Amino acid sequence: MALAALRAARRAPWLSSTSSRALQRKLFSVSALRRNAAVTRDLMTGEFTSLPDIEQNRLQVVKSTNLRPPPPSSSLVFGQVFTDHMLMIPWSATNGWDIPKIQPYGPLSLEPCCTVFHYAQTVFEGMKAYRDGNGKVSLFRPDMNMKRMVNSAKRIALPTFDGDALLELIKELIRIDKHWIPQESGYSLYVRPTLIGTHKAIGVGPPNEALLFVICSPVGPYYPQGFKPVALYGTTEFSRAAPGGTGGFKLGVNYAPGVVPQKAAAEKGYAQNLWLHGPEHYLTEVGTMNMFVVFKKDNGALELVTPPLDGMILPGVTRDSVLSLARKHASGKNKLDGLTSDFIVSERPVTMSEVKAAAEANKLVELFGAGTAVVISPVDRIGYLDEDMLIPTGSDGMGPVSRVIYNELVGRQLGTIPSEWSVTVSES
What we know:
The chain is an alpha+beta fold. The protein has helices at 2-11, 18-27, 30-35, 115-119, 142-155, 163-176, 259-267, 317-331, 352-360, 400-414, and strands at 60-61, 85-92, 96-97, 101-104, 122-124, 127-131, 137-140, 188-197, 209-219, 230-235, 272-277, 282-286, 289-296, 302-306, 343-347, 364-371, 375-384, 387-390, 422-426. Pfam families: Aminotran_4.
């Protein structure tokens, strides 16, 4: 079928000139058709209707000849050490996704005019590979990371891709470097897929070239000495996101503007910003994490609240996992030991005035952040309008809801609790 399409294309009137035939040879080879029968061209206009997607069966592997021993687990600092190999997949507007290659970790060679440097044309993901007590290596809900990365790419006109194919390539990268995953409980391999625009020109527009790469970093538990609640600064001076903007996508452009507010919060004695929005001071996110708050209702029931996905809130994988576990508990489908049966789960707007009123009435149960790096981050204090609001925490630094959710989540991640969210990479 593919070759027939090519022959028909050659007979098309728009290819009658020598220059058109040369363009055909340049942009649309028989080999491309053989690789992917879905790669087609409109017979009337000559325009491509599709280009080669990422194909895991074209993978090339060039292993490093300078393998390094992984450092002692106790010395690991988050995001500072990287494994021996990385995955690289170039893309162009003329040829689509090119050959995937796993190669030795090393510097990228990019021209200084590349659009990523000038217009922040980049998206990324964060996911973790875990090793259980039997040596089995697994990823936690990686399909959600792939879907989010594709949606983020669409938002800034970067090329999209087959997330399932990319995931298979990531698995192979992890298998090659799996000895970098520490044996100790609570440790993992942080996986960072990144897509950048590499168009060699100064000018704002969709890139004609891009590069997708994946690097891996062994990391330890976020709280190696036990949970330590953090203090938040309810910032009214800065905004993280706005309606119609990019807050709901995992883009590089969303993170650098948070550095100055973070430094300002630290100077005031707070660990992170609590991002507020609008004159009502709606709670949105905590630092780079999703935010949850627990209220005690008049009838004694507990309500777990998180802001809705209104375009400003990042659809976090941990956020979705917390909500899924909480809703199954509330419905009785999967009860969680230690969590009250009188339990409500809400995705709704929540303001600082509501949080403050609940605290004054002793109905504020807890507040916590949730994200890939930390899983759960309890909060014990919020600085807001020149006052400190104290948030209850238990002797272990956690609250009655976050403690139960955290234990269930980590159990599923580490494999001690069987779960359909755990995707096997390697059996040993």
